[in-house]
User: Which sequence fits this backbone?
């Protein structure tokens, strides 16, 4: 039995003071939660100040960054390394988010370098994949998912299913208010598990958590989380408010 994973991606929101306030609210409200793994992904500048709050409150909330550069150090103005992220107290990193792929033109091979570096450094990736609306309409969803998984996980060695979490985030559902139906999400998750099984074997595929992202809200989280291959959710907009994020977390009290 696996605990569900609920991640909150704050994207480019919250100043240091605002981030500390939300972290304090979440730590206070969620101190009893041990049925799910909860992670928050604030902007880089908020990581260390948020970690101070989480440590003060002895919170089990996991801290993660939203991106990372694959090189360990060097002349990469504006970029952040795995070791820098670890030094703030963060333990996870979002890689391959659709906003990175589509706005910042990140490719699978660049994301692949990041995944390898994160694992080597001891950061757990939340690797995002997902198709565009025109790809879904053209019947290419499985091809896109398969290509993204094979490209971003090329030559990656996993020691256990817990090394990595995959987020299936259909691009047409992110920030649009349109959520994939639980059936559409379940079908895609089942396919992701099949590709992971081909790449890493059945044991890892069975236990690796595959979470859904894209307009997850308190009103739709439960029906998604009840599906057999949906091991959690990745929440953007609704994670910026303590009430809605808490409500989604309370709905994840279902074993996977
Ligand atoms: P959203 O973002 O919940 O605001 O749609 C989801 C995501 O990007 O993970």
Assistant:
């Amino acid at each position: 039995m696996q605990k569900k994973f609920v991640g909150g991606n704050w994207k480019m929101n919250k100043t240091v003071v605002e981030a500390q306030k939300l972290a304090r609210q979440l730590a206070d409200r969620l101190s009893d939660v041990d049925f799910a793994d909860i992670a928050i992904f604030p902007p880089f500048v908020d990581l260390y100040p948020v970690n101070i709050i989480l440590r003060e409150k002895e919170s089990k909330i996991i801290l993660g960054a939203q991106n990372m550069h694959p090189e360990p150090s060097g002349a990469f103005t504006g970029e952040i390394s795995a070791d820098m992220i670890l030094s703030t107290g963060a333990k996870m990193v979002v890689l391959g988010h659709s906003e990175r792929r589509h706005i910042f033109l990140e490719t699978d091979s660049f994301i692949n370098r990041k995944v390898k570096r994160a694992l080597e450094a001891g950061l757990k990736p939340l690797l995002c994949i997902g198709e565009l609306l025109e790809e879904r309409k053209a019947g290419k969803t499985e091809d896109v998912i398969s290509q993204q998984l094979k490209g971003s996980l090329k030559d990656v060695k996993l020691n256990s299913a817990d090394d990595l979490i995959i987020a299936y985030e259909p691009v047409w559902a992110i920030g649009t208010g349109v959520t994939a139906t639980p059936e559409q999400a379940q079908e895609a998750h089942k396919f992701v598990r099949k590709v992971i099984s081909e790449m890493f074997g059945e044991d890892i595929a069975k236990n690796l958590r595959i979470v859904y992202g894209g307009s997850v809200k308190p009103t739709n989280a439960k029906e998604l989380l009840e599906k057999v291959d949906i091991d959690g959710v990745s929440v953007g907009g609704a994670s910026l408010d303590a009430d809605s994020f808490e409500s989604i977390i309370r709905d994840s009290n279902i074993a996977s």
